[in-house]
Amino acid sequence: MPISRRGFLGSAALAGAAGFANSSTRANDGAIATTGVTLFAFDDVSIPHRRNLRLNMHQPQKHPANPVLPHGKPGEPDEYRAQFYGSIVREGGRFRMWYIAGDNDGMQTVANKTAYFGWRAAYAESEDGIHWNKPYLGLVEYRGNRRNNLLKIDPPDVTGLTLVLLHEPEDPDPKRRYKMMHQIRWAEAPAFGWTTSVPLFSRDGYEWKLETKGAPQNYAISTNDMPLPPEHTEQSGLYKWQGMYYLTGQQLSPWAYLADGSECGRIMTSFRSSDFVNWKQSKTLNYVRHGYVSMPQALGKESHSPASVWNRGNVLLGLHGLWNGAPNLADRTMPMGLLISNDGLHFREPVPDSVFVPHGEDGAWDARGLLSGQEFEHVGDLTYIWYGTWNLSEPRSENTPGAVGLLTMRRDGFGSLSPMSAGAPAELVTCTFDAGLADRLVVNADGLGNDARLRIELVDELERPVAGFSGDRAALVADSGVLTPVRWPQSGPVPAGTGPVRLQVTFEGSRSDRIQLYAVYAGAT
Length: 525
Prior knowledge:
By secondary structure, the chain is mainly beta. It folds into 2 domains: 37-58 and 415-522, Jelly Rolls; 61-410, Tachylectin-2, Chain A (5 Propeller). It is 2% helix and 37% strand. It has 1 helix and 31 strands. The longest helix has 8 residues, at 104-111.
């Protein structure tokens, strides 16, 4: 039975890169990062130079306990959908989930195109990310009592189908340390489906207050008070990059167009703000699905809800729906794809149209279509990713209620580099970063041993060997692991004033083709 957890307040959220400081790396080969960075195998900006190496992308495993957060029982706020258009934050060893609870009445409001009432912000928590509890918060009356897990929203009529959240414990204003963007419909919207997003703040993540330019006191937010431009957008991701907040989502014509002005279906755009309240009127065209050509919504290969974002400091990872459109509902499917960005604005797929997570087969709880929220965490040697579901063939059927599932994979095991042939030289050279970070290198690799090694050398910006850290003073890594330290033969740090450096990594040994290099972390603490 759920128990009250309203008094719980965890410690500061764990860093997204699990021990690496945030940084900002320019998106070009001369990029220089001065704080900790992650160099992913599938990132051709961080690792632009390669020889005799192939990229292998890897899919996570669906947890056998799925769905780990099922929809509720009859009479509960999420009796129809525990919809993971939401966020998860890890605090003090506890996982905290904010999601959208939809009851049967709420489903009817969407089916009848009357309102988004019946869709409410809800809360769950877990010790391990697998077993979830929906605590009785006692904040909101629902069907005659307060024994539920609903969040308190002021004003209470701010309701919608998505929410996305950031926790910033360093914010000097305690009342703003939790920040949420909530999707709503505004007063002058000419059609039911038109939505925008509004900011809310909270001290504890349980009680939230709306703040807009005009500080409206009810759901009927007018275009004069709207934080975002008065145009339809469906939000999906929220992150902070170089001091600016970014809200990503999907738009389509007439609110968004391809670069040449052609009309389009769902593409990725983002809005930005320096204070989380006042959002700029201009926006960024972040991503268009590979091979997409102008056609009406839902018929082509679109990018659905791009993108839920994992900020890794020098790089952003994102998930989105690979919408495979068709005139008939029964022919539509939507697996999940992976995106990456090095400049915080422009996203791309490591391998065009590659499926990161396949949708379930007909009859499975996650059949036909997958949804992503803001949901990534390292747990030991694994990476956890949570996701939702939407059966595209029956979008409003009571036979397809929403729930939340869990994906697991090797820590940062999204993709790996391996030699194509063990008999030929294989190497890579990275982008540049501050030389001081080379004192704390960590490798994520598998298949290593006496006959399969990584030789790691430092070279300068012009790829000249750095004395004492190359040649016979190179580091050799022969132990597999997700966080294997790189130890230089000599003692002492890289000399001050060395300047920007790169890593030159050579795959050596008679069985070097077995090596799988997933990532190198520079500046590990």
